[in-house]
Amino acid sequence: MASPLPLALVQAPAHPSADLDSFAASLEQLARRRPAVRLYVYPELHLAEPHPGPGAPGTPCEELAEPLDGARDRRLAALAGDLGIWLVPGTVYERGADGRVYNTAPVYSPAGRRVTSYRKICPWRPYETTAPGTEFVVFDMDDHGRIGLSICYDAWFPEIARNLAWLGADLIVNPVQTPTSDREQEVVLARANAIANQVFVASVNAAGPTGVGRSLLVDPEGRIRTQAPGAEDCVLTDVIDLGDSARVRRYGTAGLSRPWEQFRPGDAPLELPLYSGRIDPRTWSTGPGPARSGTEED
User: What is the pLDDT of residue 62?
Assistant: First the structure.
């Protein structure tokens, strides 16, 4: 049985990338006020703002990118270790070994180390110029459960949430930086991805002026547990049991619908021409066992 997970979703505007000292001070203050919280999640590109305040010029990702294992990484790892927390500090611009720039979400553990990272698979084209990632990522969080990672526009592609659920994710963490009117649709998608895959979904948007807020946490049956009403700075907190995902899959959404039980061994495979692939009933299942190929975990 999974143990309860106290978490905090920090809806805040983008932070100056060069000012890790003030970010650390702010997080330390939050941690002192909320000593029970185990996981802190920040918005997309939270540490990728070149200049503070409204009216800042567009973020030059080429200039801000650095290798994932650079000084920024070491500082964030040490911060998580000092505070004894799990930390998703939003996303950063990563300079890959191939020279390309990626929009990457690192994850740090209470042991003071980076346990995994995820590169955004679906940049918001043509507006975003980062290179797309190619791997789905989940990781195990102590005895709490398995977490899957997606970033902002990834939520618009049901294949991504589906694969994370198939890899055993109980919670999908989706850092967001949306300043546009389609946040209304993203709220719907957060609930839809939770319902279709019977997982928790945490969609953490930036506060104004960087984003329009409306961060939310959705349970595996699609119910909103907590939500920011607007773009104000705020911290959403909750205590969730990631074992609820397995419970809903076993007994059904509203005690009825069990989509992961739809296909059974012996059913004919369903060809998927769009993907040059298929749904094979022999592999249509989820579970808390070892992560399947293409994942990283602690």
Answer: 86
What secondary structure does DSSP assign to the chain, as a single string? -PPPEEEEEEE----BTT-HHHHHHHHHHHHHH-TT--EEE--TTTT-BSS-STTPPPP-HHHH-B-TTSHHHHHHHHHHHHHT-EEE---EEEE-TTS-EEEEEEEE-TTSSEEEEEE-SS--TTT--SBPP----EEEETTTEEEEE--GGGGG-HHHHHHHHHTT-SEEEEE----STTHHHHHHHHHHHHHHHT-EEEEEPPPTTT-----EEE-TTS-EEEE--SSS-EEEEEEE-THHHHHHHHH-BTTTB-GGGSS-TTSPPEEEGGGTEEE-TTT----SSS--TT----
Q: Report which of 265, 291, 43 is spatially closest to residue 176, judged by C-alpha positions.
A: 43
Give the pLDDT of residue 16.
Answer: 82
Which CATH architecture describes the domain 5-279?
Answer: 4-Layer Sandwich (3.60)
pLDDT tens digits, 86-140: 999 999 999 999 999 999 999 999 999 999 999 999 999 999 999 999 999 999 9
